[in-house]
């Protein structure tokens, strides 16, 4: 049986995102005392007594939307359409409002299964706070206080009537490749997401900072599962004023760690700026495979294009393994070419190498170019094995590895990358030195060895007592 899709709809600031976090047992949705915080549809998975469901958080609807608010409302209406169950959330403290009546009318037009969730009943007599909402005409009503985690069990029991429990071992698990889209505000990230999905899935508006939360969107392309993550644009720290934007940045950085492959979107008309390099550095520190998408490429003169290519080659010489694509998210030019590169990057990031292969490659590299000598002793590298994936980690064992110079470490990384055909992802090396097996152990001599040692020490002392005849000569 497929998982039911449950949508949360209601006015702004009635507690939908708090409910979302409670029902998915996560903190994926941003929560603050500010209306209109959620702007796109946000998906999450939940489970109640073996019954699994997909939960959709939406932006608030007031019925008087204009501009970006109208697009937010359209996202909520789309969620209503695709949901099998709608949780209509109202605020017990504010009471019944014209906006609630407008939403109830929209739900009746769409003929959806609706459960009226009277939220924020804490501190009030629940039945009295609920009475006026019977006017909306919904028979299934549940009282909750999401911030206090009250009524969650009753709510899910009501919502999941008729849904069978699924054995977790038989549950479908196809997360696919997680693609994180990052970049500065207004460089076209959401436009690229919509182009890759083939639908107006996230809000696109000519205003920096439209996306405030990280939106996880599972989908399929040519039968392959993917999850694309649209993130909030990250500005320079000195330009960040709103506390909500600070939370958005935290969510973006978390999304980078969740992703398998990062697509850094750069504005071709502005060129590569320092903030792009800061974001790139964070993705590198997280060890993620990286693809660079230079957006808004259409409409540029040939001279401008050559200038941008030259600047990219010069400023990205430290990350030569990342491939750059020149695209137009608005018109779709070059977007389809991102997928083959993403596939290769993912394959390189998740690859598994056998120990004999890595050890043979290490031996060949050492034979071709031996490690330097330290304090009169040659550094020895004996064998290698894989220590992890995403990014791939190669563990090299030897002696005096702490003294291995950075230049030789880069030589090994470049050699392994070339021979193993690793694309788009960093390779991390860990060097471990074997301990001296005789350290801390006393050398116990037998009687014969002790006698020999005494004779040797006696002979050395007698040599030290004899005068140096050569020093007494007169020349």
TrEMBL record:
Binding site for GTP 1: 10-17, 57-61, 119-122
Compositionally biased intervals (Basic residues): 450-475
Start and end residues of each EngA-type G domain: 4-167, 177-350
Pfam families recorded: KH_dom-like, MMR_HSR1
Origin superkingdom: Bacteria
PROSITE patterns in UniProt: G_ENGA
Residues that coordinate or bind GTP 2: 183-190, 230-234, 295-298
Region (Disordered): 449-475
Annotated keywords: GTP-binding, Nucleotide-binding, Repeat, Ribosome biogenesis
Record family assignment: Belongs to the TRAFAC class TrmE-Era-EngA-EngB-Septin-like GTPase superfamily. EngA (Der) GTPase family.
NCBIfam families in UniProt: GTPase_EngA (TIGR03594), small_GTP (TIGR00231)
Subunit structure comment from the entry: Associates with the 50S ribosomal subunit.
Functional summary from the UniProt entry: GTPase that plays an essential role in the late steps of ribosome biogenesis.
Stated name of the protein: GTPase Der
Gene: der
């Amino acid at each position: 049986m497929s998982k039911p899709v449950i949508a949360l709809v209601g006015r702004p600031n009635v507690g939908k995102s708090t409910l979302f976090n409670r029902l998915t047992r996560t903190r994926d949705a941003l929560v603050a005392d500010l209306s209109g915080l959620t702007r796109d549809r946000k998906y999450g998975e939940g489970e109640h007594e073996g019954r699994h469901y997909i939960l959709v958080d939406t932006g608030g609807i007031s019925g008087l939307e204009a501009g970006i608010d109208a697009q937010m409302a359209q996202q909520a209406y789309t969620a209503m359409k695709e949901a099998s169950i709608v949780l209509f959330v109202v605020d017990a403290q504010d009471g019944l409002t014209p906006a609630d009546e407008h939403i109830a009318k929209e739900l009746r037009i769409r003929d959806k299964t609706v459960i009226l969730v009277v939220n924020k009943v804490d501190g009030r007599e629940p039945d009295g706070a609920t009475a006026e909402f019977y006017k909306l005409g919904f028979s299934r009503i549940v009282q909750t206080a999401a911030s206090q985690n009250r009524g969650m069990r009753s709510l899910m029991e009501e919502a999941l009537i008729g849904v069978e429990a699924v054995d977790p071992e038989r549950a479908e698990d196809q997360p696919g490749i997680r693609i994180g889209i990052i970049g500065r505000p207004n460089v076209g990230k959401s436009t690229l997401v919509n182009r890759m999905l083939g639908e107006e899935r996230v809000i696109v508006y000519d205003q920096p900072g439209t996306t405030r939360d990280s939106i996880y969107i599972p989908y399929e392309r040519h039968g392959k599962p993917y999850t694309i993550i649209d993130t909030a644009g990250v500005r320079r720290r000195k330009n960040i004023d709103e506390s909500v934007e600070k939370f958005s940045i935290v969510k973006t950085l978390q999304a980078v760690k969740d992703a398998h492959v990062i697509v850094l979107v750069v504005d071709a008309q502005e060129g590569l700026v320092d903030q792009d390099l800061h974001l790139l550095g964070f993705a590198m520190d997280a060890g993620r495979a990286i693809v660079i998408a230079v957006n808004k490429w259409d409409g540029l003169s040939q001279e401008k294009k050559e200038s941008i290519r030259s600047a990219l080659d010069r400023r990205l010489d430290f990350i030569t393994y990342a491939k750059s694509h020149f695209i137009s998210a608005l018109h779709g030019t070059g977007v389809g070419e991102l997928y083959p590169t993403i596939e290769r990057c993912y394959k390189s990031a998740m690859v598994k190498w056998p120990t004999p292969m890595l050890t043979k490659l290490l031996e060949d590299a050492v034979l071709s170019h031996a490690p330097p000598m330290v304090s009169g002793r040659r550094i020895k590298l004996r064998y290698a094995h894989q220590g992890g994936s995403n990014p791939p980690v190669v563990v090299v064992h030897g002696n005096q590895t702490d003294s291995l110079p950075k230049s030789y470490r880069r030589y090994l990384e470049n050699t392994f990358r070339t021979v193993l055909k690793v694309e788009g992802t960093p390779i991390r090396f860990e060097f471990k030195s074997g301990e001296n097996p005789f350290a801390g152990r006393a050398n116990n001599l037998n009687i014969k060895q002790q006698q020999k040692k005494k004779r040797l020490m006696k002979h050395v002392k007698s040599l030290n007592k004899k005068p140096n005849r050569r020093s007494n000569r007169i020349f």
